[in-house]
Amino acid sequence: MAARWEDDLQGYDVSRFRGEVNEDLLCSICQEVPKDPRLCQHKDHIFCFAHISRHLVQNSQTCPVCRDPLTQKTLRRPTGFLKNYWEGLKIKCDHHERKCPDFVRLEHLPRHVEECGYAPVMCRNEGCDTEVNKKDIENHEKYLCQFRIAK
């Protein structure tokens, strides 16, 4: 469970994106495309919200780059060009390793992942612990599963 929590904190790996990602627009802490990006109040240093929040609690109430005073209340959300840039990046689905071929806009990733036919699901037949892609579950349960109920 801890590994999943750490994954949620980490930014998005730049290798998941189609085309180049501007390295000046990466999280200053993890050096990845920021999840839930925030900016330092004066000099626009960029962070994943989870990373900068943890820094402010565990280390100091200053920007880790410029050392200006910083709190969760003074963090800013990106607007205009920055917001449009991040939302428009094309990213591989979280289920790419399960063969999902889709690249989606970063702003649409959560919805795509929730609806993705390549998401892993467990067979619901009693005694079967097979994991298959969501799009294949009906075929597996009715025709392929050795634990299916024969009619």
Short description:
By secondary structure, the chain is α+β, with helices and mostly antiparallel strands. The protein contains 5 helices and 6 strands, in the order αββααββαββα.
What this model shows, in words?
- The longest helix is centred in the middle third of the chain and has 10 residues, at 49-58.
- With 151 residues, the protein is an alpha+beta fold.
- It contains five helices and six strands; from the N terminus they run αββααββαββα.
- The strands form three sheets. It has a two-stranded antiparallel sheet with strand order 1-2.
Q: What is the distance, rounded to the nearest whole angstrom, between the alpha carbons of the first and last residues?
A: 40 Å
What gross morphology would you assign? elongated
Order of SSEs, N→C? HEEHHEEHEEH
The average pLDDT value, as a whole number, equals 92
Which residues sit in consecutive blocks of at least 5 with pLDDT less than 50?
A: 1-6
Tell me the β content: 5-15%
Task: Determine the structural class based on helices, strands and strand pairing.
Answer: alpha+beta
- Please tally the helical runs, counting DSSP H or I stretches of 4 or more residues: 5
- How much is the radius of gyration in Å? 20 Å
Largest sheet entry: 2 strands, antiparallel
* Assembly type: single chain
| Helical amount | 25-40%
Counting DSSP E segments of at least 2 residues, the number of strands comes to 6
- Strand order in space, largest sheet: 1-2
List keywords for this structure.
two-stranded antiparallel sheet; 151 residues
